[in-house]
Amino acid sequence: MQLDGDGAVVPHASVFAAARIAASPSHPISQPHNHHHDVHLKSMSIKPRLFSTFQCLRHENPLGLPRSGAPPQIPRMQRGLPTKRPLPSVRKTIAVSSAKGGVGKSTIAVNLALAFARLGHRTGILDTDIFGPSIPTLLSLNGQEPRLSEGNQLLPIVNYGVKSMSIGYLVGEDKPVVWRGLMVMKALQQLLWEVEWGGLDVLVMDLPPGTGDTQLTITQQVVLDGAIVISTPQDIALKDAVKGVEMMRKVNVPLLGMVQNMSVFICPNCNHSTHIFGSEGVAQASSKHKVPFLGDIPLHASICDDADRGKPTVVAEPGTGRAQAFVAIAERIAKDIKL
Question: Which of 201, 215, 270, 306 has the fewest beta carbons closer than 10 A?
Fold first, then answer.
């Protein structure tokens, strides 16, 4: 069964064939032995209508990008797994994952991108979280809308020297994305392949929590130079972080290492150190699963405040130890991926 351009049901070709046979004078059932049957056959005369993919399958273009003169960027795969390809005009691509929400993954991702930029690299960040985009807030770009290039590609929005793209620029700050999986996957394809980055040394991908469709699509279609897994020290977060590690191994993505976020709280009044969520959880998990341990990010109120006001710590407080922690991790990653 098919749908026409108005959403009406278009019968299968076999139905048209049956109708033509039934209307044929030579066919037994068309002989004038039954007047009422002839009237019924006349009422069955069906005229085929054209099937319009563009009008019916609106999930084909959820971001509403114009299609005039724009060739398809990704051929449809009729069978088998897609072939991995590098993103256009991007030298190195790394994924930042957590497999669990609420551990500070996006804050770390944007600070790492800013740290790469401070090290002199042309840097971009791609927010692949369709349902909960954070990058517009973290970069103080809420309300901004990307323009289109001459080739109908999305042009990234720049702040603090870092190019960025997010579904949050296209749907509005307070608008929920209430989409089923097919729409989500097509929007992800557009974010992956229809953004004109204009030449980057490194692109940081901020992955959504979990190990589902989005992560699988990215890891199967995009050539990733490595993945970083973020976790807090407590067991409840580590259990999911380890699942993220194992997923990256299953899809053959190089593991650059794990980062322990919110590792220690230092009282601003007395400078006393307290390990609120534990102290060595991620380091121990890294050792157990043979993954490099990249470093600690402290639990500090300023990191949260900086993120909320759209001026991340690497930019807001570049001389502090917490900012230097991000830079040190970025330096190690840059060395590992030969940036």
Answer: 270
Inform me whether the pLDDT recorded for 195 exceeds 90: yes
- Identify the three-state secondary structure at position 158: strand
How much is the pLDDT for 77? 53
Secondary structure (3-state) at 256: strand
Q: Tell me the whole-structure pTM to 2 decimals.
A: 0.75
CA R_g for the chain:
27
From CA 223, how far away is CA 335, in angstroms rounded? 18
Which tokens go with 12?
């299968």
Reduced 3-state DSSP string for 95-122: EEECCCCCCCHHHHHHHHHHHHHHCCCC
What is the token pair recorded at 322?
């917490």
Please check whether residue 142 is in contact with residue 103, taking contact to mean a CB–CB distance below 8 angstroms. Answer: no
What is the Cα–Cα distance from 222 to 337, expressed in whole angstroms? 16
Give dist(CA 45, CA 3) in Å, integer. Answer: 18
Q: How is 193-231 classified by DSSP, letter by letter?
A: HSB----EEEEEEEPPSSSSHHHHHHHHHB--SEEEEEE
d(C-alpha 152, C-alpha 150), whole Å:
5
CA distance 227 to 232: 17
d(CA 321, CA 307) in angstroms, rounded, equals 17
Cα separation, 235 vs 47, whole angstroms: 65
Q: Quick one: angle between helices 321-336 and 105-118, nearest 10? A: 80
68-91: per-residue pLDDT in tens? 555 455 554 544 557 889 999 999
For tokens 């563009």, name the residue: 54
Reference 195, options 69, 105, 63, 75; nearest CA is: 63
* Angle in degrees, CA 329, 335, 336, rounded to 5: 90
Alpha helices in the chain (DSSP H): 13-23, 35-43, 53-56, 105-118, 135-138, 168-171, 181-193, 213-221, 235-250, 281-288, 301-308, 313-316, 321-336
